[in-house]
């Protein structure tokens, strides 16, 4: 048995835009609802949701049966957690709050086996189909997406250096936290935020480094993809459920 290629990585390396969805409901049945919606990638979130390793595993099993690539965001760059997420088969990781080239290097090292990194070795995991994938150790490094999230003014200003580190596959701009760092808490669409993000994204794009983000406005998401952003999440399962419920309630009140 051979390790399959990572379609998300293939796409962003080749310049093909990838449309994503944030997944925070922490439940495999909820994941099943969106798995066949046709998104190129989803972000299974552990930072701002009640997900744990076992709930993430159940969601990865759901997405494995679809054409959607599941990326996991751990709550922190914890090498022990990273090791366990990779062992259960995460095809990529989005590391939150990366502030420097040193922290980017640490994220990469957590995903690499010695001597290139510090990931612990197990020969029988879900990731290698319990020892059946014969080329796992030789190819997993090339097939695991390592994405780093910049979330402050200082990190955004260092984004070009962070994104150029060996092993980093893409830079993700977190507009909510960037806005907060600029004094615009709760305003992720603030013009100053996007002026800063765009100014930092352009040099990365010019170097061929994939750039991504999350916005909840589909029209703006399409605009960013047109500007050269490679991977953009255009919504979240939580927002879809909450806004859908609100819209239904409001429609009923209008009729009564």
Overall description:
There is one protein chain. With 256 residues, the protein is α/β, with parallel strands linked by helices. The chain has one domain: Phosphoenolpyruvate-binding domains (TIM Barrel, Alpha-Beta Barrel), CATH 3.20.20.60. It is 46% helix and 16% strand. It is built from twelve helices and eight strands. The chain has an eight-stranded parallel beta sheet with strand order 3-2-1-8-7-6-5-4. The chain starts with 6 loop residues before the first helix and ends with a helix.
Strand order of the largest sheet: 3-2-1-8-7-6-5-4
The largest sheet is: 8 strands, parallel
Named CATH topology: TIM Barrel
Determine the structural class based on helices, strands and strand pairing.
alpha/beta
Main attributes of the structure:
256 residues, alpha/beta, TIM Barrel, eight-stranded parallel β-sheet, 12 helices, 46% helix
Q: Topology of this structure?
A:
Layout: H1 7-14, E1 18-23, H2 28-35, E2 41-45, H3 53-64, E3 69-73, H4 79-87, E4 92-95, H5 101-110, H6 136-143, E5 145-150, H7 153-157, H8 159-163, E6 170-173, H9 175-181, H10 191-206, E7 211-214, H11 218-227, E8 231-236, H12 237-255
Parallel strand pairs: 1-2, 1-8, 2-3, 4-5, 5-6, 6-7, 7-8
Helix pairs in contact: 2-3
Q: In short, what is this structure?
A:
It contains twelve helices and eight strands.
